[in-house]
Write a structure and sequence with these properties.
By secondary structure, the protein is mostly helical. Helices cover about 60% and strands about 0% of the residues. The chain is built from four helices and no strands. It starts with 11 loop residues before the first helix and ends in a 7-residue tail after the last helix.
Length: about 110
């Protein structure tokens, strides 16, 4: 049945881009890249004095500062980064949608 698509829903990346926005997705990609770099830098540092894991906290701040009140555990650090990145991506998505709508002109 060419021409009739029974499942005409867009793909997952397309729905994500439409819902979240391209700028917020770019921010989430930046957060993931910084996190991967920081983990690799911390693991490969022999001196044990690497401060690379501070950068993901700064990139996802202020939402990631919830790590200060969470129990001290390695998974809580990553949970705070996810929370911070999600909150910031939601704010970026909201801001871009408001700016995309624009201000109504005098003829409205």
């Amino acid at each position: 049945m060419t021409g009739t698509d029974g499942d005409s829903r867009p793909s997952l990346p397309r729905r994500l881009r439409d819902r979240v926005g391209l700028v917020a997705l770019a921010y989430l990609g930046l957060c993931a890249a910084v996190l991967v770099w920081a983990v690799v830098a911390s693991v490969t540092d022999d001196s044990g004095e690497a401060m690379a894991l501070v950068f993901p906290l700064l990139v996802t701040a202020p939402g990631s500062l919830v790590v200060l009140v969470l129990p001290e555990h390695g998974s809580m650090f990553f949970a705070s980064l996810v929370i911070g990145a999600a909150v910031n991506a939601a704010i970026i998505s909201w801001c871009t949608s408001v700016l995309r709508r624009g201000r109504p002109g005098p003829e409205s």
